[in-house]
Design a protein that fits this description.
single chain, mainly alpha, two-stranded antiparallel ribbon, 56% helix, zinc
């Protein structure tokens, strides 16, 4: 495989800094314009263990300061999730539907979705409720960043698949994208995937909740999310693109996911 010259790449390094000195050290480490590396997949950036550690720390700090910095959350996930990704890949390989996904490598993007067809599906179907979620929460699957720092082509796809089904998990779980909804989904994902990024988000996310929202999390949403995440079939092994017509409640039952104990509004993001 042909080598390529790693560009002077910072991945928004300025946003990773805690202070000027840290930034200078990180830039010196990450900028690798004088070295050549093998490219395992389009966009792949080869990094050393030390570089990964610096990226993990910097992105972790940035993500804690602003959980909506999806670029920093992405870097944190890629630089800390190797062992969890191996386990997820093995679960997919051992599932017929998951194995098909690993073989065919489908992507969930606006360009791959038949929006006009999905919009005609009946209320309660996976496809129709997924579109409703995207519309009500003003999100799009195209905001999911491509994987760059995972040094294994197949594991990189597993991480990409995790990102692209995240909004489908919101749909399955009935959770909006406000802070309480995101924390509940992170609790589910932590139990389901074992990704350190998800565990960190599940542990620290509640610190950003108001007292009333924290009571909802601890009283009903949290236990439900952990229970469903630990008991459910591997959510990466579901070929959602071939199940748009399936009833959402039936799919939940098939995956062993309990219905949400309370309904959350998608309107408010502050103080939630």
């Amino acid at each position: 495989m042909a080598a390529f010259k790693l560009p002077r790449y910072t991945y928004n390094v300025a946003s990773l800094s805690v202070n000027g000195k840290f930034l200078a050290r990180q830039q010196h480490t990450i900028w690798s314009s004088d070295h050549h590396y093998g490219m395992l997949y389009p966009g792949h950036i080869q990094t050393s263990p030390l570089q990964k550690a610096l990226l993990a720390v910097g992105s972790g700090v940035a993500a804690l300061q602003n959980p909506y910095r999806h670029d920093m959350v992405a870097v944190l996930g890629e630089t800390t999730g190797h062992m969890a990704l191996i386990k997820l890949r093995n679960r997919m390989r051992n599932d017929p539907e998951g194995y098909t996904i690993l073989t065919e490598r489908p992507r969930i993007r606006l360009s791959t979705l038949d929006i006009s067809s999905m919009s005609t599906l009946p209320d309660g179907s996976l496809g129709r409720e997924y579109l409703r979620f995207l519309d009500e929460n003003k999100v799009t699957p195209d905001t999911r960043a491509d994987v760059k720092f995972v040094d294994d082509e197949e594991l990189a796809y597993v991480m990409q698949r995790y990102r692209e089904v995240h909004d489908l998990l919101h749909t399955l779980l009935g959770m909006p994208t406000n802070m309480l909804g995101e924390v509940a989904v992170k609790w589910f994902e932590a139990a389901q995937t074992g990704l350190p990024m998800c565990i960190l988000g599940a542990a620290l996310g509640p610190l950003r909740l108001s007292i009333s929202r924290l009571q909802k999390l601890m009283g009903s949403l949290g236990p439900w999310a952990l229970r469903s995440g630990s008991r459910a079939r591997c959510v990466l092994s579901v070929f959602y693109e071939r199940r748009w017509e399936q009833n959402l409640e039936e799919l939940r039952e098939e995956l062993n996911i309990e219905p949400p104990p309370i309904k959350l509004s998608a309107k408010s993001k502050k103080g939630s």
